[in-house]
Amino acid sequence: MATIVEPPTLPPSYTPNTSNTPNGTSSPSPPSNPYAAARAALDRDGFVVLPASLFPTFDLPTLRSAATTLTTSARTGSWPYIRTLPKQFPPWPSDPSSGIWGVQHLMHPSNPSHATFARSYFDAELLRYVAALIGCTEEDLTMELYNMLVRPDAAFSLRWHRDDIPPEATDEEELARLAKPGWHAQWNLALYDDASLVVVPGSHKRARTATERAADPYEANMPGQMVVELKAGEVAFYNNNILHRGVYDPERERMTLHGSIGTTLGSAERARNVLQHGVGEWAKEYDFEDFDEGMRERAKKMREALVEMGRKSGDIGYYSKDE
Ligand SMILES: O=C(O)CCC(=O)C(=O)O
User: Fold this and answer.
1) Given ligand 1 and candidates 145, 146, 147, 149, which is best to mutate, with the most ligand atoms within 8 Å of its CB?
2) Among protein residues, the one whose CA lies closest to atom 4 of ligand 1
3) For tag attachment on the chain, is the N or C end more exposed, with fewer CB atoms within 10 Å?
């Protein structure tokens, strides 16, 4: 069983974020520490937005500069790890000629700025939130994915989906999967203001309604939908099985770091979702030598847990190979 982390002390600047709850109100008796409050919001709504002030060590100018350089390499064909138009799910080809909407493997050792991205991924405060949101200890965390979602080169959107439940699933299959713990936390850290992610709050706890099932996959007005609006520096954690989509504006800069971290408690559940992105192929080579000591130890441990997950799971296949 997961161990719930002990309540930590309150960061001085914390004010619980309630502006992004579906009805704009806080719960009747919010938990008294920020980590528990974040988890309660995530459990209730399927997503939670955390203010930039909680993560003072995120260096936005440095991250933006590294993100811009890597995105240029990706658009011009010298960074092969990309999400290409018009494909929604992995695997993606390495040819950017039809345009891209994402840049993969920010921490790949061949990226000259890999350490800049890794410092935000292994940030001590971020990891505290991740452990609290998963419901495990920091000792149990597993390195997973760190990618970036960028302005597409042409008009593009993702269909409504749950990351780990196919659209053909019956009500019973949906409910059975949703009843299981997710064993990971997934987040978007916006380097520029971003309003691309659209969710149906609360849909992570129930099967799709008849309307949702019958809706066009690209339905522009799903009942109850909400745009998750992020200011630069804000972090949205969301349940990856919430009903959601991405709606992108090719005219508006987007560089949003898109991460996930898992736990050794749930590695079998998570293996396909993570390893289908190809991270297992390079994580073994990661040395973290230019990190400070505390971060290096955390990172090494989390990397070992990922390598072990790959070793145990063998060939894992893809969620939706041709789409
Ligand atoms: O663009 C986003 O923020 C959502 C991305 C998404 O839904 C996905 O990668 O499955």
Assistant:
1) 149
2) 246
3) N
